[in-house]
Backbone:
């Protein structure tokens, strides 16, 4: 144990860094959050006398585009982390920038979808289908915004003294874990709302 | 990825100015004390709310003495409370006691202060997150209190907030927003507790050398982590019903007060009940497990012998934690479900009573052959055993649909729940306060006044809750504003008077405790760092511990309860002592 420099540092008993363990636990609670929403979706749908076909009322091509955008952004954030490990500062900035660009792209596409729903006077209160559609995708959107804020913070920190910080690589990795989670939630939401 | 410098945070973040030291502190001990004082305030406030209710129950329609004239006209014109105010009091009493009082005291205060010390850590794993947890709890709590004065008033649908009643009540919005704050606080805390327990242990502190209290907090944190997000999701859905006009919990064509509701309908009121109890049953174990941990510590210390069945106690706690996720619908037998489902929950409920009884049995057997010191904390721990026993055993008839359907809407349920949480958890938390007080402040509380507090409190608590079993079995309905309005309740009405008078005396009995507590902080008898001769690491550092806790990282050589070891000179050997003296 290389704890000699840190007078108080005790044994890290599991060998997993605190931040990583904390991130996984946070994701476990997030899984419970979205699992509850999916459960509610199933219960409400099974009990409903009729349920619209997703492709009749929602825009499947736009959502497909968004799926590709999010999956690509998951790749770019992995690349950003790889560049941190390679000590390639410019590479990290490039890939983190792509990630942010794609995340904004996702939100822009999503807002076009929302806007066209509102134009046709389809609101959360319209029907139980729209209620679940707006609530789940809205909550997912908030998670995307949270990810953008965290990733942008990392980019600013990395441009300054963060790059030399021993915690930096870990933080980028945890941002990646979270971003994959946001991606996976969408991969479940997409078929559940649009294709089933 | 071996960045040990994750620990660097708390060493660098030490601030010396007043705000950094006492208000936005990242030190687990200061945060623990912040939780202690805040939750004590909320407990007293929640208790005051129920005293108002008890007055109405004993003497319906009469002027509330003392504070009746201070209440605004909209709540209690002429000092007599309105039915809507009674409903608010019921909802807020439950919410405040559970989410703002007991959990923050048992987990936020005791867990925060004691857990890092007991595993020999300098602080929590994420000190800043720890601070954020408190500063998310406080605004949530303040919002809950403020809701009495906001337009729409406080929530009126019980702490369970069953729709559709909750959705049509304007005060519910504030309740839901406050809950989101409290849930966030608890999530931040639980992640911190789990990582701290797993990663911050001192050298030699293996899992099987952790004190029972640490195990209890660890299991509690896992329950909080996994059970609260479903309530968060459910609360978001209910908030959508309130503010966005959705109908997640509103059935079609609902008529309220003779008017058709303008929600489109299509929702499921029962969905909320399932999601709520999926949280709220594990929540019961969140209330009781830290208390059991405290009792185990006090018993081991004051019997001067190892706990009976340490591994069995820990195993029972883990099993209890796991099982608590599959019993939730026993709260809903009366709401209705298919018999196959109710049989499933009947069986799981009977199974979960086994580890609870095992825990209690281990604690009782721990007394056997000990040389018991009847200190104030020990008195509270001893009282916990039979009182929690009554609370637990009276729960069995509620776990079976046949008996539950008769008892469910009666005072019997209130009696059962309060025996578990008041004479169980709160008794244990009071004992814990006396036990760790010397650690927190380096001084002792008065022993004589402590004993006076103990006997009066125990007597009054039983006076409040024992009549409820009798009333309940006689069929007195709970949730009634005026119990005398129904003829069949008149026979048990004198019991309500007994209960109310006991409750007022119980409040009075807390005055010596509060005086003793606050007086002793400044003027109590000074004591050394380990006045009770405890073996665990929390007593191996100065009282109160300095920033960073231990002068040098402790090393653990033995299990947590090495009392009266044959051949040893002293009757206790601390965990960090290598050779028996």
Residues:
């Amino acid at each position: 144990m290389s704890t000699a420099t840190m007078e108080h540092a005790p044994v890290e008993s599991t060998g997993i860094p605190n931040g990583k363990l904390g991130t996984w636990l946070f994701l476990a609670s997030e899984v419970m959050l979205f699992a509850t929403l999916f459960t509610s979706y199933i219960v409400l749908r099974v009990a409903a006398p009729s349920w619209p076909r997703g492709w009749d009322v929602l825009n499947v091509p736009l959502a497909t585009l968004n799926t590709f955008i999010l999956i690509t952004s998951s790749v770019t954030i992995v690349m950003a982390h790889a560049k941190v490990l390679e000590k390639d500062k410019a590479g990290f900035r490039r890939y983190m920038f792509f990630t942010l660009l794609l995340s904004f792209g996702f939100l822009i596409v999503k807002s076009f979808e929302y806007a066209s729903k509102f134009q046709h006077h389809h609101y959360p209160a319209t029907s139980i289908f729209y209620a679940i559609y707006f609530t789940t995708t809205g909550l997912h959107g908030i998670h995307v915004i949270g990810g953008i804020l965290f990733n942008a913070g990392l980019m600013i920190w990395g441009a300054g003294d963060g790059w030399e910080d021993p915690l930096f690589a870990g933080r980028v990795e945890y941002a990646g874990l979270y971003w994959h989670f946001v991606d996976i939630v969408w991969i479940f939401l997409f078929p559940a709302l649009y294709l089933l | 990825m071996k960045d040990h410098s994750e620990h660097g945070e708390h060493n660098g973040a030490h601030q010396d100015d007043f705000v950094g030291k006492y208000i936005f502190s990242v030190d687990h001990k200061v945060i623990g004390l912040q939780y202690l004082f805040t939750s004590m305030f909320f407990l007293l406030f929640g208790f005051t709310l129920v005293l108002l209710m008890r007055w109405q129950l004993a003497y319906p329609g009469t002027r509330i003495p003392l504070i009746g004239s201070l209440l605004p006209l909209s709540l209690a014109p002429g000092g007599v409370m309105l039915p809507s105010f009674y409903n608010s009091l019921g909802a807020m009493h439950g919410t405040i006691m559970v989410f703002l009082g007991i959990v923050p005291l048992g987990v936020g205060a005791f867990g925060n202060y004691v857990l890092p010390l007991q595993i020999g850590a300098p602080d929590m794993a994420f000190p800043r997150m720890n601070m954020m947890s408190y500063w998310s709890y406080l605004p949530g709590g303040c919002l809950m209190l403020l809701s009495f004065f906001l337009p729409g008033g406080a929530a009126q649908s019980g702490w369970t907030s069953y729709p559709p009643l909750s959705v049509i009540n304007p005060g519910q919005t504030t309740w839901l927003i406050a809950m989101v704050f409290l849930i966030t606080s608890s999530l931040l805390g639980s992640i911190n507790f789990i990582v701290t327990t797993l990663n911050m242990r001192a050298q030699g502190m293996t899992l099987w050398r952790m004190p029972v209290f640490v195990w209890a907090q660890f299991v509690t944190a896992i329950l909080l982590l996994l059970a609260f997000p479903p309530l968060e999701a459910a609360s978001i859905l209910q908030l959508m019903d309130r503010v966005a006009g959705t109908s997640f919990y509103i059935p079609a064509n609902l008529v309220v007060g003779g008017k058709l509701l303008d929600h489109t309908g299509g929702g499921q009121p029962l969905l909320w009940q399932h999601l709520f109890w999926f949280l709220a049953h594990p929540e019961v174990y969140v209330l009781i497990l830290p208390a059991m941990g405290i009792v185990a510590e006090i018993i081991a210390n004051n019997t001067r012998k190892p706990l009976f069945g340490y591994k069995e106690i820990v195993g029972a706690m883990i099993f209890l934690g796991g099982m608590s996720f599959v019993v939730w619908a026993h709260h809903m037998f009366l709401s209705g479900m298919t018999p196959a489902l109710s049989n499933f929950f009947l069986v799981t409920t009977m199974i979960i009573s086994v580890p609870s009884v095992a825990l209690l049995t281990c604690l009782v057997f721990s007394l056997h052959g000990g040389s018991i010191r009847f200190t104030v904390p020990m008195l509270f721990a001893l009282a916990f055993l039979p009182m929690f026993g009554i609370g637990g055993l009276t729960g069995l008839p509620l776990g079976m649909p046949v008996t539950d359907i008769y008892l469910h809407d009666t005072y019997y349920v209130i009696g059962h729940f309060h025996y578990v949480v008041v004479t169980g958890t709160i008794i244990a938390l009071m004992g814990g306060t006396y036990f760790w007080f010397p650690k927190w402040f380096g001084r002792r509380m008065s022993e004589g006044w402590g004993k006076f507090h103990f006997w009066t409190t125990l007597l009054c608590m039983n006076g409040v809750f024992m009549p409820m079993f009798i009333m309940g079995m006689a069929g007195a309905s709970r949730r009634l504003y005026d119990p005398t309005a129904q003829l069949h309740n008149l026979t048990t009405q004198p019991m309500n008077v007994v209960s109310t008078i006991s409750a007022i005396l119980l409040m009075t009995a807390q005055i010596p405790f509060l005086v003793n507590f606050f007086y002793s902080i400044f003027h109590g008898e000074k004591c050394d760092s380990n006045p009770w001769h405890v073996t665990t690491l929390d007593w191996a550092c100065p009282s109160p511990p300095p920033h960073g806790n231990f002068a040098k990282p402790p090393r653990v050589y033995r299990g947590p309860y090495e009392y009266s070891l044959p051949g040893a000179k002293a009757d206790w050997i601390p965990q960090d002592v290598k050779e028996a003296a």
